[in-house]
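Handoff note, outgoing to incoming analyst
You'll be picking up this chain. Sequence as last confirmed:
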Amino acid sequence: MKIGLDIMGGDFAPKAAVLGAIEAYKALSADQKLVLIGDKEIAATILQENNMSPDHFEFVHTTEVIGMGEHPTKAIVQKPDSSISVGFQLLKEGQIQAFSSAGNTGAMLVGAMFSVKTIPGVIRPAMTTIVPKLKGGLGILLDVGANADCKPDVLVQFGVLGSLLAQSVYDIANPRVALMNIGEEEEKGNILSQATYPLMKETSLFNFVGNVEGRDLFSETADVYVCDGFTGNVILKLAESFYVITRKKQLKDEFFDRFNYEQYGGSPILGVNAPVVVGHGISSPEAIKNMILLSKNMIESKLVDKIKLAFQ
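Most recent structure output, in case you need it:
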């Protein structure tokens, strides 16, 4: 198994990425190899400064970097030797089995769709995040930003994608899928919600449990919460602030500690032909480590194969 990591992506790259790779290396088995994609000389220096032999890793040297503020499509085309572009080329050629980066999210989405491409039958890939539950355990929220505008059939597919992720990677049996809305009743919501509800109610592709409201997100009501990417991104950013606020207020609480993005590593892009994970721009070494381990879990669980099977 070879897991590709963009070491040039993220606000604290390459140092945070390389330090995260060191921690991930300690958790991987001998037959699981990390491929570091980026400036080899800088990476080797950081490794040596931390008493880690560069021989433990494979390197693919690149000379360009896609910045956080760059236009995704233009950057992928105009910077073919960027760490993101090269990473996706390696993924497409099968030289790595998964690719992750804490770099430009748009470039990661565009790169995934240009290189390994969308799984046949999937209308739009989705990005997910983890939602901690009050009584322990977790839920999955999608989409969290890949698709600001969605149609009803796309939301139904998100239900399938989220359900398969919950089963395959997080071992949740028969996940309960809910539609994020402004009321529990079937007729509630905007035009999109009202059109989506009957489609979800009729489907046999997943275990639909109805509408949920924002206040239900951390309860035991459901395991997978489906919404458009605009709504999901608003929820995600709000939820991320809980951890920051509790720190600023010097409140120590086990539940709010679980809102720390570092624990979960990143957001998988579901619906493309290979495991791709996008990390937070401010990713620390701990977050990078967990992003790599999430990539490993996606490979081992054969999640992509299961999604392909569902959309045949």
